[in-house]
Protein: Methyltransferase type 11
Organism: Paenibacillus silvae
Amino acid sequence: MKSINQWQAEDYDNQLAFVSEYGKSLISWLRPQVGEYILDLGCGTGDLTHEISLLGAEVTGMDASSDMIARAKQKFPQLEFMEADGEHFHTERAYDAVFSNAALHWMRNSSDVVDCVWNALKPGGRFVAEFGGQGNVQIIVKAVEEVLERHTGINAAERNPWYFPTIGQYSRILENRGFMVRQAYHYDRPTKLADGEDGIAGWLTHFGDDYFKGVNPEQVKEWCQEISEIVKPKLWKNDAIYADYKRLRIEAFKPENQV
Ligand code: BEZ
């Protein structure tokens, strides 16, 4: 899983608050019950962990970033948080549900993640997740690659850090591990970026490091301007850039007779 230590936990709470806001609707798929043990995988600064706890479940937040976990503990000292990598974690207890919002697209070794989730669940437990599905931020990705390739000649697609599967691809991974897929939904969710005309530069500052490795900040700024010019005709509406987010939402469960 990508280390997100370089993300500022405070920025995540301020400019990226939409991540948790949108995630609230995913809780309606989770339907947490009082007293259930739930693991929030890729919890960031803990807002959704907290929301789930308010419904009476015993929730543990997990994230690979020590900064995010530190901030989550500071905001919600009454909750349990742990630092662990989503592709290689092991839990002491078995959970009734594993929940994950906007995190799995950073975990390219999806079979390893699914193995860890399986091992963390009780028989009959459920896995409810939403993340980037196939075609997610494609207009932005294509523009980044076009600009990088024009200036450097590299094959920028090789730097793409994300995993955006189709329903079929992800369901196959789940089913190969033994999960039953109960629901899967791929949908468009245009997402308004902060900062008006500078929305793309801001978004790439948070998420685009892998593309700009070794490039000096002044250069990155210029290239972001070019990227912005390419995407604006397609993504600008009224007063802002709306990133072309596409979500994959799934619910799967571990059959009762499985350990
Ligand atoms: C997403 O939530 O879809 C996303 C976030 C950061 C980078 C790429 C995709």
Notes: The chain has a mean pLDDT of 93. Residues 102, 105, 132, 136-137, 162, 207, 245 surround benzoic acid (CB under 6 Å). Residues 217-235 form the longest helix (19 residues). DSSP finds ten helices and ten strands in the chain.
